[in-house]
């Protein structure tokens, strides 16, 4: 089953899993910097006293000069929409821009210094063979609305369109936008976010994640694994999202955790 066909109840989580199973997708989140780790779907109330109760969809620890120990934290709230082969779109959430901005403001209030919206477009199989213009006409107005609101508030805005394919029941990866003039790409950076000072409780929370990562054994290619939170056993885990869905401690399938 492709992401386009997946149950809407689990689509966002499935999409996050897909992003971190493919290096061409999640490497773009590094913004050309070196990453120490990525964390996915970790609750804000982890060790912070419960003042903030939502999850951070994606958090990255990045640096231009890692040898100087100058790391910064970047966060993304993820929204997922569908693009059909006829050029139409669904789940654009065009009328929920205000609510999205409120969610991003909660990230900033939590103390995260760099906050962006990641708009993921899951394309129907065959989309990039039939539709060459991107964004599609139906997407332009919602994108413009979000762009204006996010720019005014100082948040970043990225688009991540890709086509998840299967063949004879096998997962065969993705296709990206490609024309005779434009090489294949899976990332569009529309707005660079404003940087604000990191503050409590995020500072304590991010230290918890860093200490957890550093305490894990030095697996080969450790920084290609992701920090995730198992809601069944209420613990942080470090897993390779390319190959594993199960919590190493309790065995619960984290792919389907609500």
CATH architecture: 3-Layer(aba) Sandwich
Distance between the termini: 20 Å
Per CATH, the class reads: Alpha Beta
Order of helices and strands: HHEEEEHEHHEEEHEE
Mean pLDDT metric: 88
Strand content: 25-35%
Computed Rg: 18 Å
Could you estimate the helical fraction of the residues in percent? 10-25%
Q: How many strands, what sense, and barrel or not for the largest sheet?
A: 10 strands, mixed
Low-confidence parts: 179-183
Q: What overall geometry do the principal axes of the alpha carbons give?
A: globular
Give a description of the structure.
By secondary structure, the chain is α/β, with parallel strands linked by helices. It has a single domain, classed as Trna Endonuclease, Chain: A, domain 1, CATH 3.40.1350. Helices cover 24% and strands 29% of the residues. It contains six helices and ten strands. Strands 1, 2, 3, 4, 5, 6, 7, 8, 9 and 10 form a ten-stranded mixed beta sheet that branches. A hairpin with a 5-residue loop joins strand 3 and strand 4. The protein is globular.
A few lines on this structure:
The protein is α/β, with parallel strands linked by helices and 258 residues long. It is built from six helices and ten strands; from the N terminus they run ααββββαβααβββαββ. Strands 1, 2, 3, 4, 5, 6, 7, 8, 9 and 10 form a ten-stranded mixed beta sheet that branches.
């Amino acid at each position: 089953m492709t992401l386009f066909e997946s149950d809407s109840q689990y689509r966002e989580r499935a999409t996050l899993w897909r992003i971190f199973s493919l290096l061409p997708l999640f490497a773009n989140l590094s913004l050309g910097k070196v990453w120490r780790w990525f964390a996915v779907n970790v609750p804000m109330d982890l060790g912070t006293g419960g003042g903030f109760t939502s999850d951070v969809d994606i958090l990255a620890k990045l640096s231009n000069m890692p040898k100087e120990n100058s790391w910064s934290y970047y966060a993304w709230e993820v929204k997922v929409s569908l693009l059909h082969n006829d050029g139409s779109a669904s789940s654009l959430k065009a009328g929920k821009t205000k609510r999205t901005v409120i969610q991003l403001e909660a990230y900033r209030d939590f103390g995260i210094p760099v906050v962006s919206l990641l708009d993921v477009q899951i394309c129907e199989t065959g989309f990039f063979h039939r539709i060459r213009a991107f964004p599609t006409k139906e997407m332009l107005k919602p994108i413009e609305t979000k762009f204006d609101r996010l720019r005014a508030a100082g948040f970043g805005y990225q688009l991540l369109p890709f086509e998840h394919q299967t063949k004879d029941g096998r997962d065969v990866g993705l296709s990206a936008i490609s024309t005779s003039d434009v090489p294949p790409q899976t990332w569009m950076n529309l707005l660079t976010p404003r940087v604000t000072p990191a503050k409590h409780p995020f500072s304590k929370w991010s230290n918890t994640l860093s200490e957890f990562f550093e305490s894990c054994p030095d697996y080969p290619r450790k920084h290609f694994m992701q920090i995730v939170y198992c809601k069944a056993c209420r613990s942080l885990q470090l897993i390779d999202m390319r190959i594993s869905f199960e919590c190493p401690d309790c065995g619960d399938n984290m792919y389907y955790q609500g």
